[in-house]
Sequence to fold (98 residues):
Amino acid sequence: MTKQIYFENTPEYGDLYIDYIFHYDDQPILFTLKDDFSNLYLCVCYELCEYQKWFIANIDFNDLKEMNDNKKSVLESFLKNQSLLQAQRKRFLFRNRL
Fold:
């Protein structure tokens, strides 16, 4: 299986690839990413209007497991980090033409 870049050349983390999707609604909303060195990142999409916007934070496997087991909230996982990356890109909407 070929890795497909989801975020290319981010300032702190380089290229990021989708690892696992927790919540999907027409696109990934809450998911993990990995970089070229297999470091884990938690990503949440918080805006889907004209622009798509995400928060991305480094996360270790134990914190991810606690979040998955409902022992830690998504917010707690983000707040634990000293560094938080915000990403955005213009959203392209495709409409059927009649």
User: Anything to note?
Assistant: The longest strand covers residues 14-24. The chain has a mean pLDDT of 88.
